[in-house]
Amino acid sequence: MHRLNVGMIGGGFMGKAHALAYAAMPMFFWPAPAIPIRHTIADVSDELADDAANRLGFAKGVSDWRRVIDDPEIHIVDIVTPNNSHAEIAIAAAQAGKHVICEKPLGRTAAEALMMLEAVEAAGVTHMVAFNYRHTPAVVLARKIIEEGRIGTIRNFRGTYLQDWSADPDGPLSWRFQKKIAGSGALGDIATHVIDMARYLVGEIAAVSAVARTYITERPIQNSGTDKLGAGPKLSGVPKAAVDVDDEIMTLIRFQDGAVGSLEATRNAFGRNNYLTFEIHGSAGSIFFNYERRDELQVMFADDPADRRGFRTIYTGPAHPHGDGLWPIPALGIGYGETKIIECHLFMTAIAEGRQPSPNFRDGYLNEVVADAILASSETGIWTDIRAQSRNEIAAEHKR
Fold first, then answer.
1. 144 and 282, same structural domain?
2. What pLDDT was estimated at residue 238?
3. Integer Cα distance of 68 and 77 in angstroms
4. Counting CB atoms within 10 angstroms of each CB, which of 122, 186, 212, 247 has the fewest?
């Protein structure tokens, strides 16, 4: 069985999620399309790299990510760093002939994401962007139901992603609140997941009309570079610095096929933990999903008998997408880790078969085109059309 050496860049929370997937994927999906080998991990210092290697099961750690790129033994480069380094690393990896998987958002802007897309396409390598929520079995089942025509013509999509880890003003100024590193706030961090869901389930987005708000304009400066989201200690009595990204975005959506919808995302909603939802209404039925209850999909079909109409709950299990590789009993429970295991399986399968997985860097780029349009609309207050552009067109706009 083919073995693929993985070089991971970044050893934080997301590194743990990816490392778990590499270790567990062959156990869940056997025979595996390939065996991922945790070869080398890079972090910002020798000490952190060695610690990450020990924690996450890599053979060695290095403090210069370029050593991962230059190592001829490494087949896959996995990018789990803050957003401002995605482009440089991905482009270098592609030029070195490595397959690339990169955490979302792909780039800080559509222009940055386009450069990454062009690099992997020119190199002919396999590439994936890690929008893992779309691999949740209930979400894939929703797409199957839509493709079968069971809810008819889609009329409306409503998506939310609500969290509360940044609602406390004493929460530290992590890189996620700094535009030069993150690119945007709630938009790039979590709303792009909903954009990806909308595109995956309904289709391409034609235009948006958006509002963006920043509620907490400054935060305490943290001494550590570790990003602990809402789990770290609150800071008071220390110097503060400005927040220059959005805390919340809300947008109306028009889809290319005529459907309409809305999208809301914030990290400031007290009481909401990981409230990623979508509700889709069609001419013959409706679908509802809440990631906090990820084993469940609620469906309603208009042709149900009059005395039995209403939402019913389907508990996903072995009979559903990816279910044969997970647990043998419906509703036994899957978690965030399982979506990463599925993601790893899809990526390894694509490499083994010499094709591109879904979502890939093109999806990452198109999601960023929508995100850029949302920010543009929030600044102008008018509907903004969605249009994928060439690199030359983007460059010309920046010159004007």
1. yes
2. 85
3. 8
4. 122
